[in-house]
Amino acid sequence: MARDGQLSSLDEFLALSTMTLSTASPDGKPHAAPVYFAALSLTNASSAPVFYFFSDPRSQHGQQLDVNPRAAAAIYPPCFDWQDIRGIQMAGRVAPIEVGQEWNTAWELYKAKFHFVAGMKAIVARNLLYAFTPAWIRLVDNRQRFGFKQEWRFP
Description:
Layout: H1 11-14, E1 18-24, E2 30-36, E3 38-39, E4 51-55, H2 60-67, E5 70-75, E6 86-97, H3 101-113, H4 121-125, E7 128-141, E8 149-153
Antiparallel strand pairs: 1-2, 1-5, 3-4, 4-7, 5-6, 6-7, 7-8
């Protein structure tokens, strides 16, 4: 398992728009939701990357995260051939971000990626900014060979 391996191999997934976020209810019932995300390039990451997304705290995943911040996520492009299957799987924690320096940095990342949100400040203000910080990431890439996997763990 690579600890400091080439995280830059994950950068291609940062250009994608949507991350599937998985949470669980207190009784363990799973839930998955697609969310737009923005993250910094992972090329020079010395610590866990952070994936930012906005969501309504009253949504099912918002309510579940309020009780249990542990989550899993996946990012992958569409494909129609098993040899093209690739993506990242992650497990970690989600926390709301208060307005301040980190919030402003994430907002700038988000606006740069999703230009349409610049005109949606009122809608954005009704939502929370969340940060998903993975403790574990697995890259799956059948383009390299069937079942190819590379993993990273973060303290």
